[in-house]
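Quick one: co-fold with S-adenosylmethionine.
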Amino acid sequence: MSPKKSRKVEAKPYEHPESASPMRPEVGTQASFKKKKPPVTYRYDSSLAPEMVWDEKNPACEQGEALIRQIMEAESLEEAQDAAEKLKRMSAPFLNWAGKAEQAEFTVPTLPLFIHERLSTKVIIETLKAHKTDKQIDLPLLFADPQHSIRDQVLRAYEHQDKWVNRLILGDSLTVMNSLLRYESLGGQVQMIYMDPPYGVKFGSNFQPFVRNRNVKHNDDEHMSREPEMVKAYRDTWELGLHSYLAYMRDRLLFCRELLHPTGSIFVQISDDNEHHVRQLLDEVFGPENVCGVITFVKTSTQTLGLLPWVADKILWYAKDKESVKYNQIYLSKELGLEGASGYNMLESPDGTTVRRLTADEKADPRLIPGGWRVFSASDLTSSHYNPSEPYSFNGQTYTPGHRFWSTNREGLERLEKANRLVVIGQSLRYKRYIDDFSVYPLSNLWEDTGVAGFTSERKCYVVQTNSKVIERCVLMTTDPGDLVLDPTCGGGTTAYVAEQWGRRWITIDVSRVPLALARQRLLTATFPWYELRDENRGPSSGFVYKRRQNKKGKEVGGIVPHIKLKAIANDLPPDEEVLVDRPEQTSGITRVTGPFVVEATIPTPVDWEGNGGEDSGVAEGHADHVSRMLEVLRLSPLLHLGGGKAVKVKKVRPPAKTLNLSAEAVTDDTKEEPVAFIFGPENGAVSENLIYHAAMEARAKSYAHLYVIGFAIQPDARKYIEDCEAIAGVPATYVQATPDLLMGDLLKNMRSSQIFSVCGLPEVRICKAKGKLQVELLGLDLFDPVTMEANHLHGNDVPAWFLDTNYNGTCFHVCQAFFPRTGAWNSIKKALKGQYEEGVWDHLAGSLSAPFEPTDSGQIAVKVIDDRGNELIVTKSVTEVEG
Ligand SMILES: C[S@@+](CC[C@H](N)C(=O)[O-])C[C@H]1O[C@@H](n2cnc3c(N)ncnc32)[C@H](O)[C@@H]1O
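Sure, here it is.
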């Protein structure tokens, strides 16, 4: 079918040529990464614990004594006042909780961030186009990939400045923010932070463990998270309930404060349950003088607890420094009879001779107002500020301002009269304020239009997703295009989505893979209007273009609206104009897509996990503990789950005698008592190829029948090694995924043993020829029974997402094609670019067969499959392995 002829629509993203960020290394280089940094210890401000202030062991005691001395010896009043103010702060009431006073400091590891994935919607679109036109595309340019050699990445990481790309980061917000501060010196550079943390109410209530299932049940074993980073973050958060929650929040707020620009703002979204506590924390960290407002916004879901229904949540807005905070007022359109226009209850005839009140019917339905009649409010013409106020005569009657003063002088009153702005109501002279003098009104701190009824078009992709209108307002109020926005609680990525829409740069962090997978899909497939830029070469930081425009009915519809004020008429000045930041000029013919972005993660810096005595003996010891814990778990839960109700049973588990590399040995029921070997991967990292290599060598030398590799995550080359282990090392091997519940200690007491260890699927892909090009098909996920070596098969169309890198370089994964099988994820872009691509081309992106592509220089392709729990499984293949 040939594409229909239609108006040409271009798809393009915003770029940020004026911003840079330090080069981060790519995943795979971590083994050679040398620039380790020690953990950082942060001291809390001890002046906040008054009972400790005068304890002589507390350094604050010295500080207090010094301040008293300063007051007594002060040479000026200001100096004494300043010291007294500090002293007063030291003994102000404060919020205390278990562990706060005792813990004077906290330590955070300083970890580098590694780039795991590069994404660019433009690449995916261009790849489809290339299929049609045979045009060569400059992939690195579209990915904004600077293509540093591994050597440069290792030697010059964090020194060299690269072009800015937006960032999705996997990791605990505390560790990631510490990395941004210590490795990248990002302190003072973030313009706005939006934080929507767990509300501190119920364990698990903010988590969605499955990519495609938004139902979250509390305390349901099946729905608990299985991800190690997330489980750890939550174990820390909830160990002491509210006490731990407060410490968790306070620590993160401290980092947020350090990251904020002097004119920056933070917004913390919270429910009524803990609003009062979080507000006190914000007072403590930012200072009560820096609160800018508490916003009440109507939620999309109502909570009815048998009493007053809870319909709203709060956003606590603090500035780093309220005196210099960046602020753009947001305006809403005035609608007669509604908020912002409630005082407009008078009508004036077209010739200006008759005035009367609006009827109730006209108020309820403004369409009943006769044509040409103007709506106004009879506003006060007096003020409490002194003005010479002699009586003023109007239409033969004399009026006085009563006990007050006229708002303007005699000359001003005369000008108002001449402009037909005076009206008599009862006995008083008033000012005619027409509704269209200013067609908008300022947004207040009560947002009633954010519930379902207000914005129905938005579809939730994440269980606790915030209405984007809410975050949009916060972004627009406190940032300009090109500014940097951070969200340490990404969830479904609403902040990143909104920041992308409005040309802001963004960084978003989440400890859990499921929300990150959802956010990635949402961003990759989004479309936005093209807001006209003042200077395209400079990108959004040059600002958007705003214009004054009216529709056919004379209504102001542009981004600049006149603001006619009494003062201007009285002083014969031109009217003021106001910019509506949310109404920039839009260019038709361009569909804006998300700009290039990266997925990054914290990875512990290399330590010698492989047990050869690393530099850090504490870590090696920790690993020994981990191995003995795992051994115990394997003894107690000796089932390796295969899915479909099948499992391999393990018996006689014990540590092997005199081993160099292996962690355990056992027998499986079907091996006729032949011993098999086990190796456990690290507690905090992925199983490496090196680990398996050494284990396999030893397993073979000691004639074990099989090697089981148990880990929480695995590197792709290690996964590949396992598949070929029998051929390479002479012993078959199987990867077994351990559930991260194991790291949760006692929190999950009723774990079902069959779910602790499961044999993990491996994507099965096929490369085939298509008219001189190549195509990749995801045949499915294969699950091998290690005993019978038979496979269970899940079809390629049954995975939530899969990605193809057509030129895999062995380190970072470049998403050249992104597939969301059996979904309409790409529909919005497909619709916007209608007619420019063959329908069938888009079908690829909703299925299991890629669009055709040219073989490339690396000779290697990689396929990454995202499973239902957000786990990533990567396989690589050489392009020479063409089948059919
Ligand atoms: C309420 S949700 C945010 C929802 C988001 N506003 C949206 O619109 O989708 C909170 C998120 O914070 C994440 N989170 C919780 N603790 C975290 C931590 N310590 N570090 C990073 N992310 C964390 C959770 O995984 C969850 O996705």
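If it helps, The two ends are 25 Å apart (CA to CA).
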